[in-house]
Amino acid sequence: MSDSLPAKSVRQTSSTAATETEGEAYGRNARAGQVIGLSGELGAGKTAWVRGFARGIEYRGRVQSPSFGLIHEYLGGRLPMYHLDLYRLGSPLEVISAGLEVYLEQPDGVTIVEWPERWWPGFSTEASSRPGWSRVWLRNRGENIREIAYELPGA
């Protein structure tokens, strides 16, 4: 990831709780059919942001990283939420073979996908041109400091 974040809106947090609050605010405005590409290195705060997002859609259960299971489904909130981690998949064909494209094409809830480029190599540049798609980048800027950049649909 380059030193600057390619986005329309950039926020900074200084604690895990503040990163969760950012995700929660974003989740309050979530709508069915959204696909959010979530990027950031290990330790950037992606899982904390997703925990907050889940609170924003009124999900009250435990939220954890899907790294070893590819997907976690969170039902029981205002919307279903699907959290995918495509890091271990090497190509769009592997995403399709794993049966995950259903969560990426017109989901009945909200899909948050880490490493979205594994599914669609052009996701980084084309996300904002597709209705319902957006990008969120998280970057570790030091002890407890996270930079969160948002690129909204149509931005």
Report the average pLDDT across residues. Answer: 85
Given the structure, what is the number of helices?
5
Given the C-alpha coordinates, what overall shape results?
globular
C-alpha Rg (nearest Å):
14 Å
Oligomeric organization of the protein chains: single chain
Describe this structure in words.
- It is a single chain.
- With 155 residues, this protein is α/β, with parallel strands linked by helices.
- Helices cover 25% and strands 26% of the residues.
- The chain has helices at 16-28, 46-56, 92-97, 101-104, 123-126, and strands spanning 9-13, 35-39, 71-74, 81-85, 110-114, 133-142, 145-151.
- The longest helix is centred in the N-terminal third of the chain and has 13 residues, at 16-28.
- It starts with 8 loop residues before the first strand and ends with a strand.
- Residues 1-7 have low confidence and may be disordered.
Layout: helices, strands, pairs:
Blueprint (H helix, E strand, L loop, with lengths): L8 E5 L2 H13 L6 E5 L6 H11 L14 E4 L6 E5 L6 H6 L3 H4 L5 E5 L8 H4 L6 E10 L2 E7 L4
Parallel strand pairs: 2-5, 2-6, 4-5
Antiparallel strand pairs: 1-7, 3-4, 6-7
Helix pairs in contact: 1-2
Characteristic key phrases:
seven-stranded mixed β-sheet, 155 residues, 5 helices
Briefly say what this structure is.
This protein has 155 residues and is an alpha/beta fold. It contains 5 helices and 7 strands; from the N terminus they run βαβαββααβαββ.
